[in-house]
Amino acid sequence: MTTTLPPEILERRDRAKTWFEDLQSRICAELERLDAEAPADLFPEPAGRFDMRPWTRETGVGGGVGGFFKGRLFEKAAVHTSAATARFSPEMAAQMPGADKDPTYVSSSISLIVHPRSPCVPTVHMNTRFLSTAESWFGGGADLTPMLDVQRTQEADDTQLFHAAMRGACDPFDPEWYGKYKAWCDEYFYLPHRKEMRGIGGIFYDRHNSGDFEKDFAFTRAVGEAFLDVYPKIVRKRMSQAWGEAERQEQLIRRGRYVEFNLLYDRGTMFGLKAGGNIETILSSMPPMVAWT
């Protein structure tokens, strides 16, 4: 489809798309390595491999590649990229900056979820995206969800390590961004009906436009690199820990909270469904097994 957006916006979208696809490839390779490294006495099944599934949008122009994984250490993982040139519905245009002038938009993104089999290894979520109407911005972030209560404290090693990585992504660009985006993450990933956070947080940002595209793009790349560095460290530290049925049940209940958030409150899920995204990739964030109390 044609777009009235200026050529430089399309060029920026294409640069972001190329970056997200490269990051997808590297994250998938690292998750496969981790799955193969998992100790055979705890995870005797064969190591997994990603199943990469291209898809095409039913509305507008674009699509993406969904990466789906089932393995021995990682019970379920998904790493997806997408790009689009499309038009917002009147309902969505009313909520998007710049879309009141022209509902045409371009976008590109990466999103991922990792649900480990071991309750000792935290679940993790990360996504970053570029979106442009008559205005342009980046959004995204990363957050960690330990499954066991003993790991769900601000003093826990995983919490400290993960937040240090997110601070490291923010501080070179603006020393105020980490505090701002950490607080936004804590507020966003909160289940009001449970009166509890989904995990131990991280950073979350949306409609991020400092006025300097190169700076904002570099920041978004730094978030992706920080994730790729820190999460494998946490996995390698935790994957050899023994666990039993009690820990597994605690994990399944915590996963239930994850489902509740994604279906009741997650704006990304709602956006993807309303914008004509791929349902298989949008709902792949759901864990494979859950329990409720």
Characterize this entry briefly.
By secondary structure, the protein is α+β, with helices and mostly antiparallel strands.
Please give a structural write-up.
The protein contains eight helices and nine strands. It is of the alpha+beta class. It has a single domain, classed as 3-Layer(aba) Sandwich (oxygen-dependent coproporphyrinogen oxidase). Strand 2 and strand 3 form a beta hairpin. Helix 1 runs parallel beside helix 5 and helix 3 packs antiparallel against helix 5. The termini are far apart.
State the major sheet. 7 strands, antiparallel
Q: Given this structure, which CATH class is correct?
A: Alpha Beta
What would the average pLDDT be, to the nearest integer?
93
Count of helix runs: 8
CATH architecture: 3-Layer(aba) Sandwich
**Fraction of residues in helix:** 40-55%
Overall number of domains: 1
**Proportion of residues in extended strands:** 25-35%
Shape: globular
Estimated structural class: alpha+beta
User: What is the CATH superfamily label?
Assistant: Coproporphyrinogen III oxidase, aerobic
Radius of gyration, taken over Cα atoms and rounded to an integer in Å? 19 Å
- The total strand number stands at 9
From N to C, what is the helix and strand string? HEEEHEEEHHEEEHHHH
How many angstroms separate the termini? 49 Å
Strand order within the widest beta sheet: 1-2-3-4-5-6-9
Provide the low-confidence segments as ranges: none
CATH topology: oxygen-dependent coproporphyrinogen oxidase
